[in-house]
Structure formats: structure tokens, C-alpha cells
TrEMBL record, chain A:
It comes from Cyclopterus lumpus (Lumpsucker). The chain crosses the membrane at residues 558-576. This is SSX family member 2 interacting protein. Keywords: Cell adhesion, Cell junction, Coiled coil, Cytoplasm, Cytoskeleton, Membrane, Transmembrane, Transmembrane helix. Residues 293-313 are annotated as: Disordered. The keyword Protease does not apply. One of its GO terms (cellular component) is adherens junction. It is found in: Cell junction, Adherens junction; Cytoplasm, Cytoskeleton, Microtubule organizing center, Centrosome, Centriolar satellite. Residues 159-218 form a coiled coil. InterPro entries: Adhesion_Centrosome_assoc, Afadin/alpha-actinin-bd.
TrEMBL record, chain B:
SUPFAM superfamilies: YVTN repeat-like/Quinoprotein amine dehydrogenase. This is WD repeat containing, antisense to TP73. The lineage of its organism: Eukaryota, Metazoa, Chordata, Craniata, Vertebrata. It comes from the Eukaryota. Pfam families: WD40. It comes from Cyclopterus lumpus.
Length: 585, 456
């Protein structure tokens, strides 16, 4: 409801007499009232002035006024008794004055009354308004109340229904549980019954199948095979049973045994670790001992004592500690003690450090900061050239990218070529070096061969001397026959040998000359081989006796002189060969 | 890496003898024995029907061929080719056949798990073990071949019987605290037997050899539980994979959980390396035409390689159907490396991913994200090296040094379905659908891998 219409309603409701005058608002209610009262008086007056007294009805008017005045309780203006028609002016005036006074009084009271009325009306208005407001409020609250009540009722209903539901559900659950339980028991029962039946059937089936004749179980083996372990099976007796039991317990025991051993090992390991920890703790604590003694700490002495004691204990324990309960306890206790000490020490250090930090915050910090700053400056300085370097590199790179064919790149390219060249030279150098090494080796081989040859020659010379001596001594025809034979055989073989070597030598020579650039070391081992052969012949290898016999059987007249000549020839060739090798070198 | 030529096989029945010298393959009803080094056929045996199972005896002297449909087992000797043995289970049927550790007895499980028949090849004697339980893993032999643990079911209760394999003497027989026992496995040292309940209940029980209950472990209740259990080769860890996509590691001293490995769909671990397989279709270029000629089928071949993914990696996850039994979720495969240093796992709802965990740091080392679901993975028996295949023509290898993928260069697109390491770790047997191929590792494989990672 809008305010204006509401107000109109109110005015209409409360004061229907002013309804027509009042248009719409409460504020314009009092002015019409005032207007009304003010306008009524002058209208009345005009009417009296205009029509009341004329020349004709003075007498009537007089009497009328007289009556009126007397009715008002004033002294009469005109008395008939006096008999004169003229009015007593004084009396009239007095009367008028009284009337005016009366009128004034009346007006004043009217005004007062009007004010009073206004006041009271506004009061009434206000009260009415407040009352309506209150009534509205009351209405509203009443409505709210009923709404709330309704809701409460509904909620109550809901709760009730839910409770019902819950109860129902609970009942249902209970019922279902009961059903399940009963079914489960029934099921279990049934299952058991079925299982029993099943077993019975099985038994029966078994029986039937066993009894059945036509298709019996059978094993058909060609020949029995031996047991895997090669033993014969034993009869089942009490003894075997006991043996089985024994074996079972044996395996169990061995298992426990191994487990115990493992645990023992583990324990030992752990103890070792403990010992080590303890030792390290002791060492740490002993390190700080002198400092603390300087500090004159109260428990320093005690600690030292205990440590000494522990040290003694420690040395004696080592091996015992693993097994003795007391030792173990002592060890753990000591470790606990040490640990506590270490902890307190660390804590103290911590607190000291924090204190020191607090106390010497400035100086320490200043120093550190200075060093830090120095370091920073230094690093910055270092960074600067690095940055420059990077920049130049980047620049160069960009330049290269932007202008691929400028001078720098060409120089770079030439550098590259130079590098390549150098690389190639280096490789060549390397190959040359390798060749040189090869040559060196070959020369060494040759010299070695020469040395060996000279040795052999010397030996040969000696041999020859001996042989010549023998020859000289055996010049007489009556000498022993066997010796010439021997020498014959030797020389005979020698000839063939020398011939072959002689035939091969020139060949070799040619070969050597043909490739002078790379002298093959092949000839060296060849010569050495030939010398070895010679050596063999010189040493009179018995297998060559066969050749000797052939020679003698052919009865060739090989005289000593001829032999000597042959030998000389051989020697010549030999020298020639040596010279050749020397020349080659 | 070199590859042999391709041989025929059926039912993926190919096994290298325990001594590593011979390779036995089944082709329909024929058994072919080859020399591993030369691949020359040494023996050829003909069975009575199509072979459904084949196994070597522990001493590599005999081969067992089972024909489940006919209820028959035939045994062949390598030393005496004319020696033969035929075991007929008759009308009682046969569902499983295996060697005893001594290689002189055959254990046949009859149909409906009526009983286990123990046949002796030494004496022709037959003995029966009644009430074997039909479950995931009901029989296990200890590593040293001394004992056999057998899950049994009597009067609706689970029992475990421990037999001495030497003379089948019943050593221990005890009831287990399980609702429905699903499997049992000896620790590699043969002293502890791990027994686990069916997936309805998370329960792992550890029994000593003498039948004492050492410990019981349960991680949670109500929801689906254990999916796979594996011992580490040094018997120190027991890894349990479960339906909640976690692997829990128990220690061998207190049998409490040391740690658990989760398989999150997003990997934020910066220390783990995530290798992602990327496939590239090869265009027939002139530069590698020669290679194509050798491969032959290169026109439609895809080349794959690994890429290293930076840290936050999202892994494709397949939501399992909640209405179906045996949901495809949880850790189904676990394998320790031979030195017990690494553990490889596979979570079923992230079937294309293999996770490798470091057992020293107890943390994730590597994640191999393949383009297709991983079929099979196996550790090198000598080195920490993992081989895996995803049913395509590529073989994948992981080692701490890195990861490689190798195309199998055979004609006709050899799809690797399964693989088996030779005991020396020098070669690898790759099994396709109807074929098999040997892959020879270079001895300087490590160097290759290093090179590979260096090029990265």
C-alpha cells in the first residue's frame, strides 16, 4: 500500500466529516477547519448589519434587543416603564460595551478552543497513526508467527516421517539381516548337506567304479624301472616313521639354525656399528675436553673419569661384548650417555653460536660482508671481460652471418686451409716418422745378424783351424780310415750346400738392387738360415751320414786337397755374402 | 638377440627338460623331443590320442603325456625309446596328472576329485589318497621334493595332509581354520606352508612343517579377499595380492605386514619410471626394405617402442561388472625375480600394465604400460630381467637398466601368447597359438639395454 492512499484511507476512516474538504494529504487537514471558523463569523455579522434594523422596525428591534439583552442578563437598554421612546444612550453604550466585551471574551475562548481542538485533533491524528502502525506491526508479526508455527509444524511432521522411515529402515535392515543370517545358515546347512551327499555319491561312485569289471584301472609297464636314488624301497615300519619324524625335525631345526645364525650375524654387525659410533663419540667428546677444562666446567672432571673407565672397559670388551648380557647393557648405556652428552654439547654450541651471533653481530657481519663484497667485486670484474668476450663473439658471428664474403671470413678460410695443410703435413710427418722407425728396426736387425754372423764365422774359423790341424796330422795314408770318411761326408754335403747357397745368392743380390728404396730384411734371415745349416753341417749332424755313404759308394776320388779347395771356395762365397750384407747396411 | 625357426605345437604343450638339454613339444598326438642346442629331433613318440598335458620328470629321463578325455597317461623314456608305460584310469576319469618329485611316481587326480591315485613306475604299485579338495591349488610339493601338502575336505571341514614323498607316508594331518580353503604353497625352504581361504574371506594361514599354526593374517573383512599368493625365492617375503588392488608383503619373522603396494590409476611417484609402449605403423621405406623382406609380413606390421612418460601418469582402468562373479579386479599375478630383489605384479582392471617393485626400497621402480593386455610375464631365472608378452608379435624385456621391445622376426605374424625362460637364462621359449620359437639372448644384453637407455 502506497503512503498517500494509505493516508487517504486513514482520513476517510477516522474523520468522515472532513472527507470532502481534505483532498489527499494529512498536512492540509487543519487549514480548512480554520477557514471554516473564520469565515462563519463575518458572514453572520454582515447579515445582521444589513437586514436587522430599519427605520420602520426600530421599536421592534429595540424590544427584541432588549429581550435579548435581558436574556443575556444585562441591564435593559430601554425600559417601557419610563415611557419614552428614546433610548438611554448611556445604557445602550454600556450595553454595547458589555456586549463587545462579551463578544471579545467569546472570541478569545473560541480561539482557545480552536487551538485546543487543533492540538487535540493532531494528537488524535498522531495517536491514530501510531495505533495503525502498531496494528500493522501486530498484524505482520502475527502473520510471521503463524508462518513460523506452520513451518515448525511441518518440520515436526517431517521429523516424524523421517523417524518413521528410519524405524522402518531399521526394521528392514534387521529383517534383511535376519533373512541373510537365516539364509546363510540355511545355505550353509544345505551346502553341508549337499557336500555330504556329494561325498556319499563320490564314495558310491568310487565303489561302483572300483567294482566295475570291464574297464578297470590298469598300469602297463614294459619293465619296472629303478628308483631315482638307486635304493630299494623300504617297508613301512615304526622305524621309518620315526625316521621321517626325525628328518622333519631336522629340516625344521636346520632352518631355525640358519635363521639364528643370520640373526647373530646381523646382531654382530649392528653391535659393530654401535661400537664404532661409540668410539667416534668418545673421540669427539675427548677433542672438546681440553677446551672445557679451560672453561672450568663443573662436570668436566667427572666426565673424564667416566671416559677413562669406559676406555678401559672398551678395550677389554670387544670380543666379550657380543655375548655377555652385561656387556651389552653397558655398551648401550654408555652409548646412551655419550649421546646425551653429545646432544647437550651440540645444543650448548648452538646456543653459544646464536649468542655469539647476537653479540658480535656487527663486527662479524661487517667482516663477512666485507669479504663478501670483495669477492663480489672480484667476480664482477671477472664477469666484465667475459661479457665483453661474449659480445665480441656475438658480433663476429653476426658479421659473419650478414656478410659471408668479407675479408675476415676469407682470412678465416685461409686459416682453415692453413690448418688443413698443417694437418696434412703432420700426417705426412707421422708416416715419415713411422718409416724411419721401420728403417731403424731393420738396420738393427741387420747389425744383429752381422754380429751373429761374425760370431759364427769365428766359430767356423776355429773349427777350420782344428780341422786343418787334424788334416795335417792325418796326412799320412796310414791314418785312421774313419776320420777322413767323416770329413768326406762333411765336405761332400758342404759342397751341395754351398752350391745351393751360391745359386741363391746372386738372385738375392739382384733383388736387393732392384728395390733399393725399401731394402727387404728377408735376405738376412735367409743367410742366417743358411749359416745355421752350415753350422749344422759343421757340427756333424749324424743324419747326413747317409749322404756320406752315398758319396763313398759312388767311389768318387775326393782327395783332401780337393776338399780344401772346396772349402776355400765356400768360404769365399761366404765372405762375399757377409760383404754383401754389410754393403746393404 | 637371435630367433630360431618356428616349430609346430599344439595346446601350448612345450617344455624344456629340467636339466635344460631337451625340448619336448606336442603336436596333436605326437611328442617330439629335440636337442635344445641344435634343435635336432632326437625322439618322436606317438600317443594314443591328442595330448592334453605333458610334463618332464625331475631327472629329465621320462616324459608324461596325459590324455584327459581318454583317462590315459603314457610315459616315455628318453634313454630307452622302446620302453613304454601306459596308465589307464578307466571309467573313473582323469582331470589332472603330475609327476612326483622323484620322477618315479605319477599322481593322477580322478574326475570329481574322487581321489588321487599314486602310481609307482618302480613297482607298479598303486595307492590312493581320498578326499582331495577341488580348489585353486590343492597339491604342492616342497622345493626339495621331500614333502607333499594336500588339501582335503572331510565332513565339511578343510584339512591339510603332509606326505613324505619318499614312501607316501602321512606325516601330518591337521584341520585348518578356513571356511573354504582355496590353495596352499610351501615356502621355498620347505619349512612353512601358506594356506589361504577362498576369495569370500581374506585369510592367510601359515603352518609350520610339523602342523603348528605359526600365524594367521587377515587384512580386512567382508569384501572379496585373496586373489594370489607368492613366496619370494629366499623365503623372506610372502606377497599376497587381493581384490582390493593391493599387494601386502608379510615378513618371515613375525609374519606381520611389512608394507603394502597399491596400484593407483594415477601415478605421481617421481622415482618410478613409467614406460609407455607406443605403436607405430611402419611405412615401407627404401632404407629398411631389406629388413622388410626378411620379416615378410611387414606391410601390416606395427613397430612398437617404449617412451618414458613424465610423472603424473593416468593409467587406463576398466571398471569391472559388479553383477558378475569373479570380477576382473585385483592383483592376480605376482612374481619375484630370482634374486628376490624385484616383484612384478599385474592388476586385473589395469590389464595392460605391469608394475615392478623394488623389495629393498619397498617402492615402485617401474611401470610398463602396454598397448594391449599383458598375457604373461616371467623373470629370468638367473638375472633380474623380466620378459612379457601381450599376444602380439613383440617380445618385451625389462631390466633395471631399461626396457626394450623386440619384434619376433618370423613369417606369418607369430603372436606370442606365452613365454618360458630356459633355466640358464640365455634363451627364451615363445609360444604362439600353434607355433613355438626360441629366442636367444645376447650375452651382452645388458650393454644393449644400456645403449638403448643412453639413446633416450
Amino acid at each position: 500500500m502506497s503512503k498517500t492512499s494509505y493516508c487517504a484511507y486513514l482520513t476517510g476512516f477516522i474523520s468522515p466529516e472532513v472527507k470532502d474538504t481534505c483532498s489527499s494529504s494529512v498536512e492540509c487537514r487543519s487549514p480548512p477547519l480554520i477557514q471554516f471558523s473564520q469565515s462563519s463569523v463575518p458572514l453572520h455579522r454582515n447579515y445582521i448589519l444589513s437586514t436587522f434594523c430599519t427605520e420602520h422596525n426600530v421599536q421592534e428591534c429595540l424590544s427584541h434587543i432588549n429581550q435579548e439583552v435581558s436574556s443575556l442578563g444585562l441591564p435593559p437598554v430601554w425600559t417601557e416603564s419610563s415611557g419614552s421612546s428614546e433610548m438611554n444612550v448611556m445604557a445602550v453604550l454600556n450595553c454595547m460595551y458589555d456586549l463587545i466585551q462579551l463578544h471579545h471574551r467569546g472570541l478569545r475562548t473560541l480561539e482557545n478552543m480552536e487551538v485546543e481542538q487543533l492540538k487535540s485533533s493532531s494528537n488524535v491524528d498522531h495517536l491514530q497513526r501510531t495505533s495503525t502502525q502498531l496494528k500493522e506491526q501486530l498484524e505482520l508479526s502475527k502473520r510471521g508467527n503463524t508462518g513460523l508455527l506452520e513451518r515448525e509444524r511441518q518440520l515436526h511432521l517431517k521429523v516424524k516421517s523421517l523417524q518413521n522411515c528410519l524405524k522402518n529402515e531399521k526394521d528392514e535392515v534387521q529383517k534383511l539381516q535376519n533373512i541373510i543370517a537365516s539364509r546363510a545358515s540355511q545355505y550353509n546347512h544345505e551346502m553341508k548337506r549337499k557336500e555330504r551327499e556329494f561325498t556319499k555319491l563320490k564314495e558310491r561312485l568310487n565303489q561302483l567304479l572300483v567294482d566295475k569289471k570291464e574297464k578297470k584301472q590298469a598300469i602297463d609297464v614294459l619293465n619296472n624301472i629303478g628308483r631315482a636314488d638307486g635304493k630299494r624301497s623300504l617297508w613301512k615300519t615304526q622305524k621309518t616313521e620315526a625316521k621321517h619324524e626325525g628328518e622333519m625335525y631336522k629340516t625344521l631345526l636346520s632352518d631355525y639354525d640358519t635363521r639364528q645364525r643370520e640373526m647373530l650375524l646381523e646382531n654382530a654387525e649392528l653391535k659393530k656399528v654401535l661400537q664404532q659410533i661409540k668410539k667416534e663419540m668418545v673421540s669427539i667428546l675427548s677433542l672438546r675436553k681440553p677446551i672445557r677444562k679451560d672453561d672450568k666446567h663443573p662436570d668436566a672432571g667427572i666426565q673424564a673419569d667416566s671416559e677413562d673407565e669406559e676406555q678401559v672397559f672398551d678395550s677389554s670388551k670387544e670380543s666379550v661384548g657380543l655375548f655377555s648380557v652385561h656387556a651389552r647393557e653397558k655398551l648401550t648405556n654408555s652409548i646412551r650417555l655419550q649421546w646425551r652428552r653429545l646432544k647437550s654439547h651440540v645444543e650448548r654450541l648452538d646456543s653459544q653460536a646464536s649468542l655469539a651471533q647476537m653479540g658480535e653481530n656487527k663486527t662479524d657481519d661487517a667482516i663477512s660482508r666485507e669479504t663478501h663484497e670483495e669477492e663480489m667485486d672480484r667476480l664482477k670484474l671477472e664477469i666484465q671481460p667475459c661479457k665483453d668476450f661474449i659480445q665480441t663473439q656475438q658480433q663476429l658471428l653476426q658479421q659473419q652471418l650478414s656478410s659471408p664474403c668479407d675479408e675476415e671470413t676469407t682470412s678465416l678460410l685461409s686459416n682453415c686451409y692453413m690448418l688443413q695443410e698443417r694437418e696434412r703435413f703432420r700426417e705426412e710427418w707421422k708416416t715419415l716418422e713411422k718409416q724411419r722407425n721401420l728403417f731403424e728396426r731393420e738396420r738393427r736387425n741387420c747389425t744383429e745378424a752381422a754380429i751373429r754372423l761374425s760370431h759364427e764365422r769365428k766359430a767356423f774359423e776355429d773349427d777350420r783351424a782344428v780341422w786343418l790341424k787334424h788334416q795335417f796330422l792325418n796326412l799320412s795314408p796310414f791314418a785312421d780310415l774313419r776320420k777322413p770318411q767323416m770329413s768326406k761326408s762333411k765336405s761332400c754335403f758342404l759342397i751341395s750346400e754351398t752350391e745351393s747357397s751360391a745359386s741363391s745368392a746372386p738372385e738375392k743380390l739382384i733383388k736387393c738392387r732392384s728395390d733399393t728404396t725399401s731394402p727387404t730384411p728377408r735376405c738376412v734371415p735367409l743367410t742366417s738360415a743358411s749359416t745355421a745349416d752350415m753350422h749344422r753341417t759343421v757340427c756333424l749332424v749324424p743324419e747326413k751320414r747317409y749322404v756320406v755313404f752315398i758319396c763313398t759308394n759312388h767311389d768318387m776320388p775326393v782327395t783332401n786337397a780337393a776338399l780344401v779347395v772346396c772349402y776355400e771356395l765356400f768360404m769365399l762365397i761366404f765372405y762375399f755374402q757377409i760383404n754383401q750384407t754389410k754393403w746393404k747396411d | 638377440m637371435n630367433f630360431s625357426e618356428v616349430f609346430k605345437q599344439s595346446n601350448q604343450l612345450c617344455k624344456v627338460s629340467p636339466d635344460g638339454k631337451y625340448l619336448a613339444t606336442c603336436v596333436q598326438y605326437r611328442l617330439v623331443v629335440r636337442d635344445v642346442s641344435t634343435l635336432q629331433i632326437l625322439q618322436l613318440y606317438t600317443c594314443l590320442d591328442q595330448i592334453s598335458h605333458m610334463d618332464w620328470s625331475s631327472d629329465s629321463l621320462f616324459i608324461l603325456c596325459a590324455m584327459y578325455k581318454r583317462g590315459l597317461v603314457q610315459v616315455w623314456s628318453l634313454e630307452q625309446p622302446d620302453w613304454h608305460c601306459k596308465i589307464d584310469e578307466g571309467s573313473i576319469g582323469l582331470v589332472s596328472s603330475r609327476w612326483s618329485p622323484d620322477g618315479r611316481h605319477i599322481l593322477n587326480t580322478t574326475e570329481f576329485h574322487l581321489r588321487v591315485t599314486v602310481w609307482s613306475l618302480c613297482t607298479k604299485a598303486v595307492s590312493y589318497i581320498k578326499y582331495p579338495k577341488a580348489c585353486q591349488k590343492g597339491i604342492d610339493f616342497s622345493r626339495d621334493g621331500c614333502y607333499m601338502a594336500l588339501a582335503e575336505r572331510r565332513d565339511c571341514k578343510d584339512y591339510v595332509s603332509v606326505f613324505v614323498c619318499d614312501d607316501w607316508h602321512l606325516l601330518r594331518h591337521f584341520e585348518t581354520e578356513t571356511q573354504d580353503l582355496a590353495g596352499l604353497e610351501w615356502s621355498p625352504n620347505g619349512c612353512v606352508l601358506a594356506v589361504w581361504d577362498s576369495c569370500l574371506e581374506y585369510k592367510v594361514l601359515l603352518y609350520s612343517l610339523d602342523g603348528r599354526l605359526l600365524s594367521a593374517y587377515s587384512a580386512y573383512e567382508w569384501s572379496l579377499g585373496v586373489k594370489s599368493v607368492t613366496w619370494s625365492p629366499n623365503s623372506q617375503f610372502l606377497a599376497i595380492g587381493s581384490y582390493d588392488e593391493k599387494v601386502r608383503i608379510l615378513n618371515h619373522i613375525t609374519w606381520k605386514k611389512i608394507t603394502q603396494f597399491e596400484h593407483p590409476s594415477s601415478i605421481n611417484n617421481t622415482k618410478a619410471v613409467v614406460y609407455k609402449e607406443v605403436e607405430k605403423r611402419t611405412a615401407v621405406g627404401s632404407d629398411d626394405l631389406s629388413l622388410h623382406i626378411t620379416i615378410g609380413t611387414a606391410l601390416y606390421n606395427t613397430r612398437s617402442k617404449y617412451e618414458i612418460c613424465p610423472s603424473p601418469v593416468q593409467i587406463p582402468v576398466v571398471k569391472p561388472d559388479p553383477d558378475r562373479a569373479n570380477p576382473k579386479i585385483g592383483v592376480s599375478s605376482l612374481a619375484f625375480s630370482s634374486d628376490s630383489r624385484y616383484l612384478a605384479t599385474k592388476n586385473d582392471n589395469m590389464a595392460s600394465v605391469v608394475w615392478v617393485w623394488d623389495m629393498q626400497k619397498m617402492s615402485l621402480v617401474a611401470v610398463l604400460e602396454q598397448t594391449s593386455a599383458v598375457r604373461c610375464f616371467q623373470w629370468d631365472p638367473c638375472r633380474p630381467r623380466l620378459a612379457l608378452c601381450t599376444g602380439n608379435t613383440t617380445l618385451y624385456l625389462w631390466s633395471p637398466a631399461g626396457c626394450v621391445s623386440v619384434q619376433v622376426p618370423t613369417e606369418g605374424g607369430f603372436q606370442v601368447q606365452s613365454l618360458n625362460w630356459h633355466r640358464s637364462g640365455d634363451s627364451l621359449m615363445l609360444l604362439g597359438k600353434e607355433q613355438l620359437c626360441l629366442c636367444y639372448m645376447d650375452t651382452d644384453q645388458e650393454d644393449n639395454i644400456r645403449e638403448f637407455t643412453a639413446t633416450k
